[in-house]
Amino acid sequence: MPIETDVAVLGGGPGGYTAAVRAAQAGRSVVLIERDKLGGTCLHRGCIPSKALLRSAEVFTTLKQSSSYGIRIASGEATVDWTAVLARKDGIVEQLHRGVQALMKQHKIQVIHGSGRIIGPSIFSPRSGAIAVELADGESETVVPRNVVIATGSRPRKLEGLPYDGKTVATSDEALAWTERPASILIVGGGVIGVEWASMLADFGTEVTVLETAERLLPGEDKDVSAEIARALGKRGVRVLAGAKLNASSCRSENGQVSLQAEVRGETVALSAERMLVSVGRQGNVEGIGLENTDVKTAGPFIAVNPATLQTGEPHIYAIGDVIGGVQLAHAAMHEAAVAVEHLTGGHPLRCPDRDIPRCIYSRPEAASIGWTEEAAAASGLKVKTAKIPLRVLGKALVYGEAEGFAKAVADAATGDLLGVHLVGAHATELIAEASLAKLLDAVPWEIGRAIHPHPTLSEIMQETMLGLDGTAGHA
């Protein structure tokens, strides 16, 4: 017998399980279909495992620098037990995986483990949207929902012509399964993933070279953020080749080494390393889920949706998260899940503009941004004013031993409205939440500056920078 339900969610990542929980909280019956493990890429191959490795790298670096805090390690220098590093990462992932499983049980969400494929009108339903699920044991189930939420996520995009084997030449998904830390690595792509891996591996002692086709690292971020992160990585020995064009046909993987040639600003450069990590973006998982049986349309490798409601070409079928492109972040997917479920349950949701979703980079130092960059605002015709305050003016930054970085605010010179905030430094990914709240409440800079921030804390940098827009910062 087919399983009838109010909402079927296809995909159990952050967007999918959030949609399932929201629908259940709204009193709907829910079936969630996941072909792998609940938690998706974020939990098993992305956000959580990579941040666990970054944290281990941070602790290792702190130990190596302990003498600057007056701490001596009598037994000798700190060393890395890579097996233990991986075990800690795996333990965190498994604990959170159990938590997601418990969440499904708590909200009485039926989870079906299998590959789901949307089918067209049939004996089960007069309209497309029923889902045929192939189970691991070869059996099948049919789910007949009133609404469908597609949350199938994304996968790393690959460059054609490279000899991928998952070990010597790998994507970030595969690199997380490496059982040994490479002595040297070529990272193709200087976006968020490339920068985080470069930072982490450099802290562990790997020789790192980053190739980026744009003229600077993190080309989508404010130019000051890019420059500060490039400077910080360079201090730790990371070689950054911006404006680099990879010659894929020259890439060879032989005798435990990867070699290739790249054109860097008109000059041919020969490069080699133990491993190559390719991080050049992600593409939506739109294949094999039955879209051809529906009126759901795609835009390149992503599903096209109504930007306000997240409905596809079939009004009862929604799509959220990485599979629709845009801001491919877990918290963006969770927000989109809430918007989709609120709409399908009869509400009138307000979706946050992509620009106002916080963007975080968990390198050392961290970086975080929200809103317009200075360049984008000026290019749009806005007359802007900015304030940039170095982190070193804060007592807490000096106490913490992490004084590199800054906060930058971008405002509309005509109206005084806050356009963007850009942070580089310790705990930047935590501090950006204040700016996110300010954007939601449409707060202007003087209001943020007027709010009392405790001293000594890193949060004072937000107050100082907002006051700096009017020339009233207390420490600049």
Key phrases:
Enolase-like, domain 1, 13 helices, FAD/NAD(P)-binding domain, five-stranded mixed barrel, 476 residues, alpha/beta
Number of helices: 13
In what order do the strands lie side by side in the largest sheet? 1-2-3-4-5
Q: Name the helicity range.
A: 25-40%
Total discrete domains: 3
Q: What name does the CATH topology of the largest domain carry?
A: FAD/NAD(P)-binding domain
Q: Which geometry do the CA atoms define?
A: globular
Q: Which residues sit in consecutive blocks of at least 5 with pLDDT less than 50?
A: none
Supply Rg: 24 Å
**What is the top-level CATH class of the largest domain?**
Alpha Beta
The end-to-end span amounts to 70 Å
Portion in strands: 25-35%
How many strand segments? 23
Characterize the largest beta sheet: strand count, sense, and whether it forms a barrel.
5 strands, mixed, barrel
The CATH architecture category of the largest domain equals 3-Layer(bba) Sandwich
Alpha-beta content class: alpha/beta
What is the CATH superfamily classification of the largest domain? FAD/NAD(P)-binding domain
Average pLDDT for all residues: 95
Structural overview:
This protein has 476 residues and is of the alpha/beta class. It has three domains: 3-61 and 78-155 and 283-354, FAD/NAD(P)-binding domain (3-Layer(bba) Sandwich); 158-280, FAD/NAD(P)-binding domain (3-Layer(bba) Sandwich), CATH 3.50.50; 365-468, Enolase-like, domain 1, CATH 3.30.390. Helix content is 31%, strand content 27%. The protein has 13 helices and 23 strands. Helix 1 (14-25) runs parallel beside helix 8 (330-344), helix 3 (47-64) packs antiparallel against helix 4 (82-106) and helix 3 runs parallel beside helix 6. The relative contact order is 0.11.
